[in-house]
Structures are given as structure tokens and as C-alpha cells.
Amino acid sequence: MLEFAFMQRALLAAILVGAVCGTLGFFIILRRLAFIGVGISHSAIGGVAIGLLLGIDPLITAGIFAIAVALGIAVVRKRADLSEDAVIGVFFSGSMALGIVLFSMNHGYQQDLFGYLFGNVLALSTTELWLLAGAGLVVVATIVLALREMLFIAFDEEVARAYGRPVDLLNSLLLVLVAVTVIIGVRLVGVLLIEALLVVPAATAALWTNNFRSQIVLSAGLGSACGVAGLAGAYWLDIAAGGSIVLAAVILFFSSVLIRGRG
Amino acid sequence: MSDGSIIETDAANRPAPGTTVVGVRNVCVDVAGRSVLRDITFDVPAGQFVGLVGPNGAGKTTLLKTILGLIEPKFGHIELFGSSGPRRGREAHSVGYVPQRHAIDRNFPATVRDVVMMGRLCCLGPIGRPRRADWKQVDDMLDTVGIADLRARNIGQLSGGEQRRAMLAQALCASTRLLVLDEPTIGLDLPAEHDFYSLLRQLQADLGLTIVAVSHDLVALAGEADALICINGHMHIHGNPDDVVHSHAIREAYSCEFNFLAGELALHEGGGDHDH
Ligand SMILES: Nc1ncnc2c1ncn2[C@@H]1O[C@H](COP(=O)(O)OP(=O)(O)OP(=O)(O)O)[C@@H](O)[C@H]1O
Ligand SMILES: [Mg+2]
Questions:
Q1: Which domain holds residue A147?
Q2: Contact between chains at B88 and A210 (C-beta distance less than 8 A)
Q3: Residues B93, B175: Cα–Cα separation, whole Å
Q4: Which chain B residue's Cα is nearest to A79?
Q5: I want to staple A202 with a disulfide (CB 3.0 to 4.6 A). Which of A219, A257, B169, B205 is the partner?
Q6: What is the CATH number of the domain that holds A91?
């Protein structure tokens, strides 16, 4: 299958996105941010629609939109008088509704919509692949540099605060990284399925080891492996790549649950 | 067990005896719109071990958090090491905090060593990586608190008492000069509680630590602390432990009678109470 240039690019993207999602996924699992991940990724739909309507690259507007929603959620999380879950629900259903309304205004966009919802990795250009690699590197480097600080906050946020650690900054940063990773993953699996790559490989890794270093490395490796396996499956079976990749991850998760007997 | 292992917190780093390490000045705190602390004022001199007592809901935890800068007082202010205002960054190091019992996730993916190193992050610089000297400090502190053999275990797999010691090591490993403890002996059996207090006394002596500890075990605390402070919304009494436990003020704070001579506390008849 690698005789085609577009397949080579797709494969590189799958490895890259899998690794970035797996790395960040460690903290999504540890901090129980899965629902927030859903909120941020689904809200990107509104951004995509705005981009298509204005004739700007939808990934740019989706990125701006997702980061704005991430920061909005970060602000809301600090307020004790609002129910976090409810507000996230409002954010993402609101921006999805906005997206759907905008899409309905021009039926010509519907083909594009499908690609953003479920991924369209075979259409990835070389420039996009480079951008993706650059953004992925930034995300992973940020996590590596802030690893111990973020672990401290996950362990005891209040003590971290008492010791003068920049807790609010790092909490917001984590959500912004989620937004950036969602955009990185849109091409591969689309906004509706990116959450799976953020959660499933990391949850699988947590079944196998109980040390943060090995969990992160394993999670990133599993993310990449699922990307490759899913893409190969999509090629040979002629099925949608995004769904195939996520199914590979889910199968791996349930196999791990069975083997590890923690289910 | 701590001989020679105490590095960094040497004599030069100690506040001179007699200087005030914690100064609480007319502090009033509101939590969620309700007045919790009213006009709290006291000093903790360098090197002293102060016990903070009061009934449930008296505002002890709130007071500790205010001292740590986690809660802003509505009125009044806190002085630490003679200066008030924000203590972010470098200065925050010298304060160690062991919060009221929090359940540690059984599966938290970090070893005891990694968790103790968290207490040293403030010494590592913005993107600092722990160096060999930092790991040595961590290992020395694990040795000091007596759980060196558990350093490679995951934190969630330790018993409650062992976790307490790990949290103490975490609080101590950043050249700590002031230790703030919220009910550190809760859940410990009697010998373990005794050991824990001896460890605190030893740290106090070896490191010149100033200690503020909240506990509900008045009997044990009165035997170990240099001074007791009793609050219940406002100050009730501050003095040497013997005087405090026999004072009228502490009975008022708890709205009951204590019988300390028997070595245990007993509710007296006549307070309008039921039972026997
Ligand atoms: N987050 C909060 N929201 C609302 N009220 C609070 C909050 N935290 C504390 N309080 C109130 O402040 C008062 C003091 O609480 P605090 O935790 O300081 O008491 P405490 O002396 O530590 O009690 P305990 O011995 O039970 O630990 C209590 O009446 C409590 O209801
Ligand atoms: Mg308390």
C-alpha cells in the first residue's frame, strides 16, 4: 500500500497523531478530563463552519474556536457556583448547533462537513503533514517539560498551589493542549472520533503499567500502533480510516481488560 | 536515623531563635459568604511547635490555608518570616504543608520518590530537571521519616501511616523552615502516633523547624507541643499546653468539660447532655 504517496503521508500522520494523542491522553485519564475532551473536540465543529463560510482554512478557525472554548472551560472550572459538566454541555452543544446552522446555509459544504466530522486522512497534503508534525512536537515537548509539575497538580492541586506552583496557568495550558491536539487529529479521525484517541490508548496503557513514565511511553506507542493498524485495515478492507483506527484502539483496550482481568 | 543526612537546612538558614516565623494579625476570613474566622491574632516564634485545636468546624483548616496564602483574609494579614504580601516563588519553599487526610488514589502512577520530589519542584527552576543532589535530598528525607525502604513503591500502595510519612518527607524536602500540618496523626495507631510526634520533635530540634499542627487529640498534642492555641471562630486561648487544657476558655470553645487528669476526655454530666 505504500507505493502511493498519499498513503505514505497518511501513515506518517497516523503514527504522529497516535503518539501525540497517546502522550496527552495520559493526563486526560489521570485528571479525569475525558468529558472536557469531548466538549473541546465537538466545539471545533463551530469553528470549521465559520472557516468554510468565510473562506479561511477551516482548521485555523477551528483551532481558534477550540482554544477559546478550552480557555472558557478553564475559567468556568474555577467557579464553584457553576456545575462544570452542565457548562461544558452548553459550550459544546452550542458550538455544534452553530456549526450545523452555518452548514445548512450552504449545502455545498456538506461533503466537507463529513470529512471534518470523521476524518479524511488520504487527502492530507505535504504542507499539512509538516504543520501537523510541528504542532505535535510542540504539544509533546510542552508535556515533557511540564511533566513533573502537571503530575504534582494531579496528585494534590492544593499543595501545589501552596508551594507557589503555577497551577492555574498549567491547568489552562493542559486544556489548550487538548484543543491543539484535537486540531492535529481532525484530518486523521475527525472531531467526533478524536476523543477516542485521547482516551482509549491511555486507558489501555494504565492497565499494563503503574508508573507515569512507562504509561506515557506505552500510551504513545499504542496510539501510533493503532493508527498504523487501523490505516492498514482501512486500506485492505476498503473502510473509513478514522473509524477503523478507533476500532483498532477499542479492540486493543478490551483485549487488555480481558488479559489483565481488571474488567 | 537522621544524623548527617540533614543537608541544606543548616544553622545559617535557620531563623534566629525568638524571631517571629508566623504572625497572624487580626485575621478575619469569610468562606462562601459566611464569617469563619474573626479577629485571630497570635505569633509563632522560630523553632516552636504550636498545636492548634478547636472543635469541628472551628476554622482550623481555614486558618492554616490562610497562613499558606491559599485563602485571602477579608481583614488583617499574615506575616511569614517577618514579611507579608505574596509569597510566590522562592520564598514559598520554606513552608511545608501536609493537608488534612486526603485519600490517595490506589493507582496513582508515581513512586514514593517521585511524590516526594514534587515537594522539591520549587527548587528546580522553571523547567528544571531533578539533579543528583535533588534526588539525594529526597532520599535523605525518606530516610529521616523512616520509609527509605519504600521509596520505589507506588504511593497508592502504602498504608495510611506510611503515606503520612511520605507526605511529611514531601513537605520537608525543599529546605523547609516552617511545617504546617493538618491532623497529621489521624488514622494512626497509638504507637505510630507516638512515633510520629517523636519524629516531629526530632525534626524540630535537628532542623530548627517551626511547626504548626492541628490535631483533635488534645491529650497527645498537649504532651508534645510547646504551646497550644484554641480557636472556635475566634481566639479562645493561647498559652502553654498545661494551662490551656485546664483553662475555662477551652471548655467554652468546646462547650463541654474535659477531664485531663484521667488522661482522657470525658463529657461531664450536667451540661444538659444525655447518656448514662
Ligand atoms: N469550601 C467551603 N464552602 C463553604 N463552607 C466552608 C468551606 N470550607 C469550610 N467551610 C466552613 O467553614 C467552617 C470552618 O471549616 P474548617 O474546615 O476550617 O474547620 P475545621 O476546624 O478544620 O474543622 P475539622 O475539625 O472538622 O477539620 C465550617 O463551618 C465549614 O462549614
Ligand atoms: Mg479541618
A1: 5-262
A2: no
A3: 7
A4: B32
A5: A219
A6: 1.10.3470.10
